[in-house]
Amino acid sequence: MMVETVEVETRRPRLSEDGAGSVLAVAMLGVLVTVTLAAGGVVGVIASHRVAQTAADLAALAGAAALQEGGNACQQAALVARRNHARVRECRVQQWNVAIVVVANTARLPGGVLDLEARGRAGPVVQ
Fold first, then answer.
1. By the 8 A CB rule, do 104 and 55 touch?
2. Distance from C-alpha of 127 to C-alpha of 125, rounded to nearest angstrom
3. What is the DSSP string of 36-77?
4. Alpha-carbon span 68 to 108, nearest angstrom
5. 3-class secondary structure, 12
């Protein structure tokens, strides 16, 4: 008796790549949304810091002007800071100089609201 050997061709099933482009597109869209949100947060923080710095500078100038006119420098500085969406954390008057520290809040970010601090100083020019 003779046994015949028959070679059977075994094929692996081909894995289809149908839909791979859709998965890649969804992943890229997720990356794009994440980067956009992060950039928006950074821009918000920078804009809020600019608001705080402007408020500090203007408050210091207003305080120095009030001081020269015989008024209350810190009270005037607080009023100007409040009108510029900030609040005075510290106000110091030394002779004719006014030093101000103000705080401005960022808009709501995913991590919460940040307090951004800025400093301003104003007084007479010494030559």
1. yes
2. 6
3. HHHHHHHHHHHHHHHHHHHHHHHHHHHHHHHHHTTS-HHHHH
4. 39
5. coil
* Cβ neighbours around 88 below 10 Å, total: 21
CA distance 22 to 56: 51
Q: What distance lies between CA 102 and its chain's CA centroid?
A: 17
Q: What is the pLDDT along the chain (127 residues), one digit of tens a residue?
A: 677 777 777 777 667 777 778 889 999 999 999 999 888 888 888 988 999 999 999 999 999 999 988 889 999 999 999 999 999 999 999 989 999 999 998 777 777 778 889 999 998 876 5
Structure tokens at 77: 């500085």
* Helix, strand, coil % over all residues of the chain, rounded to 5: 45, 20, 30
Which amino acid is present at 6?
A: V
| Cα dihedral 33/37/39/43 (nearest 10) | 150
What is the rounded CA–CA span in Å between residue 33 and residue 39?
A: 10
CA distance 91 to 73: 9
